[in-house]
Amino acid sequence: MTTLWDRSREVAVQAILDTAVRLFAEQGYERTTIAQIAREAGISQRSLFRYFGTKEDLVCGDQDALGDLLKRTVEQQPAEMSAWDALRAGFEVLLTANHTPDRALELSRLIFGTPSLRARYLEKRLRWQAALVPAVQARLESAAGPASDPRARAIIATVFACADTATELWVEHDGRLDLKDLYDQCLAAVRNPG
């Protein structure tokens, strides 16, 4: 049940995020300060930090929570589902986890267009990959031997590379292409080349 407090928090977060994204688009991520975002959003810097731990969180969101959501979604898929399909289901949930497609496109533009944000994004995604290894390994164990089997890591790395490539293409085409279709095309190119 959503309370009045939850709804009030959502409105505040959205207003801060709208202000931040507008400023980032107008003057660039690096040149926009937290003080400026807080001032234009009509709140104190301290209040802003209650909602967002860092300036980066304004763009990337709570990556730890998103990584947990991805892992949980993969783990909750039916046991007979392949690792490939379980990971796709996880990424599909992430697409709608926090933002509308238009907002996700704006944020993806910022991430892929700002070297410091992209570096942090990739760093956090490496942690996601490591966290997913046990879930994917469990799906492979019935057919595989020892835990030193590299397949889980290879599958995860491939899926992440395909997701990032699809997102870059989606941004390059200004969101006019379907992101899920782009991901499927990328994965098909890797799994069935030729």
Give a concise summary:
With 194 residues, the chain is mostly helical.
If you had to describe this structure to a student in words, what would you say it looks like?
This protein is mainly alpha-helical and 194 residues long. 75% of the residues lie in helices and 0% in strands. It is built from 10 helices and no strands. It is globular and about 55 Å long.
Oligomeric status: single chain
Please work out how many helical segments DSSP would assign: 10
Low-pLDDT segments: none
What is the N-to-C succession of helices and strands? HHHHHHHHHH
How much is the radius of gyration in Å? 19 Å
DSSP strand count: 0
Major sheet: none
Query: Globular, elongated, flat, extended or rod-shaped: what is the shape?
Result: globular
Strand-residue fraction? under 5%
Throw out a few tags for this protein.
single chain, 194 residues, mainly alpha, 10 helices
Task: Walk me through the topology.
Elements lengths: L3 H24 L6 H8 L3 H7 L3 H6 L2 H14 L6 H13 L5 H13 L1 H26 L10 H22 L6 H13 L3
